C-alpha cells in the first residue's frame, strides 16, 4: 500500500505490458499494478485526431533520437482493495494501450476490463483503434520498422506517476497540476504548446516572454482567445463558432519551424521580413511606420511569435474598447460608443453578444486596414466603418426581443429568417475587400435602413428617439438615416 504520496516513473511497456511502475523515489519498482478506470471518471474523449497527433509526436521524438520522451503525468489512487484507480491520465493511457494492441502487443490487461458503457467512449475506442491501425499499416514498411517503433514506445516513452492512498489528496494534486486549482483555459494549453516550440530560444529571452504573458490580465486573455480571436477565425471562414476548447485549439498552433510546405514557407518568410525590418533602424531613419507581422486570418508562426501575437491583439482590443478622448489611436470619444458604454447596454446576454459582434468587426477592420498609428484619412475611413458596424450589429438587436447565440450565429452567417434585414457575414466582406473604400462601397450596397414595423423595441420610446435623445441606441439609426420613415 502507498503511504502518503509516492512518486515514480513508468515506462509505457512496463506499465501496460508488465503491470509495473518502473521505479519510485527509492529506486524500487512497484509490481502487480492493476490499473482501473473508476466510475467517476469522465468519458474517453480523445478522437482520431488526438490519437494521430500522439503517434506523430512519438515518431518525431523517435526520429530526433530522444533518449527519454516524457508523455505526461499519471495520477493514481490506490484503494483498499489494492486497485490503482486512474484520477488523471486516462486519455493517454487508453490511447497507448490501443497503440500497443495495434502493434501486436497482446494481451494488454488494461484493455480487458469494461472501460465504460458511455457511447462516446465506446465510439472513440473503436474509431481510434481503427485509425491507429490504418496509420501504422502505412507508416511501417516492414517488421524491422514495427519492432523499432514498438521498442521505442515501450522503453523510451515514460509517464511521471503520482500514487496516493488518499482520494481527496489525489484530487487536490490533480487540481494543483491543472493551473493550481483553476480551470485550465485553452490559452494555457496554447502557452505550453508554444513554449515547447521555443527550444532554440535562450533562457533569458524565454523568461521575458513568459513574464510578459503572465503580466497580462489572464481573465481578459482568456476572453480575447475564446470570444474574439476564435470567433473571428471561424466567422471569416464562413463557419459558425461554438466554443474554444482543448479539441479545437489547433487554429492557434500555426506553422512550426519544421513545416516546409510552400504555404508555410510563405508565411514564415513574411513574418521574418516584418520582424527583421521592425527591429532594424529602417523605420526610424526613413520615418516609415513599422510593418504589422500579424493578420488574424493568417496562420500563426509557432513559438515566440505566438506570444507576440497574443500581446499585439490584446493591446488592439483594449484600445478599441477604450473610448477615452486622448488614449489610443482607434476609438476616441466616439458618440455611438459613448451611448453603448452606458450600463443599461452592458447588462444582459443579448446586449453583451451584440456589443461583442460590434467590437469584433472593428477589431478585424483595424487589423486589415489601420496602420499602428493611423493617418487622418485612416481615421476618417474607420469612423465611417464604425457607423456601418453599429448599424449591422444593432439591427439584429432591434429586430429580436431576445438575442442568444443561436440567433446571433444565424445572423452573422446570413442565414436568419428572410424578414430579418442586414443579416450578412460582415467579417467575410471585410476580409475579401482590398481597401477601406471598396469595403465601404460594399457596405453601402448591403446595409439597408430599418422599417418601423421591424423594430421590437418598446414603441413608447419612439418619441424619445425622434426628438433626439442620445441615451438610446436607436437614436443613431435616425441620426445616420438608417430608419425608414423617420
Describe the structure concisely for a colleague.
This protein has 486 residues and is of the alpha/beta class. The chain is built from 21 helices and eight strands.
User: What fraction, in percent, of the residue positions are helical?
Assistant: 40-55%
| Main sheet makeup | 6 strands, mixed
SS summary, helix count: 21
How many separate domains make up the residues? 3
The general outline is elongated
Tell me the series of helices and strands, N- to C-terminal.
Answer: EHEEHEEHHHHEHHHHHHHHHHHHHEHHE
Share in β-strands: 5-15%
Unreliable residue runs: 179-183
Going by helix content, strand content and strand pairing, the class is alpha/beta
How large, in whole angstroms, is the Cα Rg?
28 Å
Number of strands: 8
Mean pLDDT: 86
Distance between the ends: 80 Å
Major sheet strand order? 2-1-6-4-5-3
Keywords:
two-stranded parallel sheet; 3 domains; alpha/beta; 21 helices
Could you explain how this protein is built, in words?
The chain contains 21 helices and eight strands. The strands form two sheets. The chain has a six-stranded mixed β-sheet, sandwiched between helices. A two-stranded parallel ribbon has the order 7-8. The protein folds into three domains: about 5-180, no CATH class; about 185-320, no CATH class; about 325-485, no CATH class. With about 475 residues, the chain is α/β, with parallel strands linked by helices. Mean pLDDT is about 85; it is low at about 180-185.
